[in-house]
Recover the amino acids of this structure.
């Protein structure tokens, strides 16, 4: 019994010193390939995923050691905007506030074209560097195309790995039915790119949405997988 008590004390020590169990930064692709309808589907889809019963329960499971959320949108190299600053999700009311802010966002008319995915990853890493007291730090980045401006995502990997973060991706495939089977090939190619050049860290993965119409469902699956990656027992 003494040995068990000592082991539990050792495990409890590091947890007690932490500020949160997970810092989760969500980067949304609002580049030129994303039209007004797709923009709205993405924002509303994230709001719906955060408010779903299973994700809500996962976020609020340990309010004394909460998840912290930040949401930003990214496009060209000099065009990234934070939509939701770091927020400690300690109650249903706090989570509802985050959802309300996402639903109220209106697209900026001055958003620039271009897909600066490397810049978006570096920015997400900067945000996560502010949360060194969290047990785990995860960048959740969405995208519907390959990087075409700024540094290549692959060149940032070593630096981000050294920072101790995990980068997961949600790939958004073509949603035009006129493409037929071609869109499946496009999604496979884009997923392979994100697997090779973007994701990194322990257990990193790529989730896929078949068009922005499927974004909410894919984001819910992705969030559940991310939030389920660290199990903390009360015992």
């Amino acid at each position: 019994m003494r040995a068990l008590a000592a082991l539990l004390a050792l495990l409890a020590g590091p947890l007690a010193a932490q500020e949160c169990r997970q810092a989760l930064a969500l980067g949304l692709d609002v580049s030129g390939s994303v039209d007004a309808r797709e923009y709205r589907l993405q924002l509303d889809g994230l709001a719906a995923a955060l408010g779903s019963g299973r994700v809500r329960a996962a976020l609020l499971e340990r309010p004394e050691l909460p998840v912290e959320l930040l949401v930003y949108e990214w496009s060209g190299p000099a065009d990234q905007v934070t939509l939701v600053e770091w927020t400690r999700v300690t109650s249903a009311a706090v989570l509802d506030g985050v959802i309300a802010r996402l639903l109220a966002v209106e697209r900026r008319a001055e958003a620039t074209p271009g897909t600066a995915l490397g810049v978006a990853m570096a920015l997400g890493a900067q945000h996560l560097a502010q949360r060194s007291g969290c047990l785990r730090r995860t960048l959740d980045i969405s995208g519907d195309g390959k990087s075409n401006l700024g540094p290549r995502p692959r060149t940032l990997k070593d630096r981000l790995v050294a920072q101790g973060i995990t980068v997961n991706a949600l790939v958004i495939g073509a949603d035009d039915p006129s493409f037929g089977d071609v869109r499946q090939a496009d999604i496979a190619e884009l997923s392979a790119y994100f697997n090779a050049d973007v994701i990194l860290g322990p257990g990193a993965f790529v989730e896929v949405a078949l068009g922005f119409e499927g974004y909410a469902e894919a984001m819910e699956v992705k969030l559940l997988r991310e939030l389920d990656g660290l199990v903390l027992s009360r015992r």
Remarks:
- The domain at 19-227 is CATH 3.40.50.410 (Rossmann fold).
- The longest helix spans residues 2-17.
- The chain has one domain: 19-227.
